[in-house]
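in:
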């Protein structure tokens, strides 16, 4: 694999940003002689774009399945055009980032070759990309995803409730504003025609603090969208779980393995 530590100025955010990009070796690119299927792999709330590389075998998996991986840094934005005005991160990750990546690297622009996945906050971001822009993503995957963000306004956080709610207000606005906006995954999913939706993969450990979010979301929309759901006994909000699951996601995408 070729590893690229890519930096560029985001016109949307008004600052310089970073992304890790994994590509097959040049020999593979020459052999394939066509643009690559691409997975936009999103990080969690307390992470950055480096964590997937440092905590999982994503480089090995990318080589095995001959897929490009783009891992952007978005801070604690929830992949959202922030109510506070601190940054239009949904516009960045949905519009500017793919345009830049597809300009610099040999990435396919076809819907069936473009995917999004992420963990926790990144699971929310990946699902939001696919639900709001179903014509651009062939498949999306959420691992331990924060799929019902409106419930975070009330979830106990060990004494940090007020601080986190203040942070959420800066991102989404009030709870009422979140509930009535396109940042509410359930609202977007209700409106989306199932025939136009991307394929969906949701996984969560039954010891994860977000398990009820995942169970309820899948119970509500699983049949409508044919969601592939994996609830794994004994697993929590941990990197070993996400390492196992991200390879399962790549296999589920039906990306051919390297010979």
């Amino acid at each position: 694999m070729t590893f690229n530590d890519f930096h560029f100025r985001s016109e949307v955010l008004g600052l310089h940003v970073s992304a890790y990009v994994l590509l097959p070796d040049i020999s593979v690119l020459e052999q394939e002689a066509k643009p690559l299927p691409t997975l936009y792999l999103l990080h969690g709330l307390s992470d950055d774009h480096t964590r997937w590389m440092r905590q999982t075998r994503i480089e090995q998996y990318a080589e095995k399945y001959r897929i490009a991986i783009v891992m952007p840094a978005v801070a604690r934005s929830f992949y959202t055009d922030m109510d506070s005005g601190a940054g239009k991160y949904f516009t960045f990750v949905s519009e500017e980032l793919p345009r830049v990546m597809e300009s610099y690297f040999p990435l396919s622009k076809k819907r069936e070759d473009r995917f999004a996945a992420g963990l926790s906050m990144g699971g929310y971001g990946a699902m939001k990309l696919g639900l709001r822009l179903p014509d651009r993503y062939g498949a999306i995957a959420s691992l331990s995803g924060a799929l019902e963000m409106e419930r975070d306004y009330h979830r106990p956080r060990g004494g940090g409730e007020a601080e986190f709610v203040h942070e959420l207000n800066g991102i989404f606005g009030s709870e009422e504003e979140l509930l009535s906006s396109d940042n509410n995954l359930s609202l977007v999913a209700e409106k989306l025609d199932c025939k136009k939706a991307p394929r969906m993969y949701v996984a969560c450990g039954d010891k994860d603090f977000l398990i009820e979010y995942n169970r309820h979301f899948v119970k509500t929309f699983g049949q409508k969208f044919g969601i592939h759901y994996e609830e794994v006994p004994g697993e929590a909000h941990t990197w070993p779980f996400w390492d196992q699951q991200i390879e399962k996601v790549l296999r589920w995408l039906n990306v051919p393995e390297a010979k």
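note: The chain has a mean pLDDT of 93.
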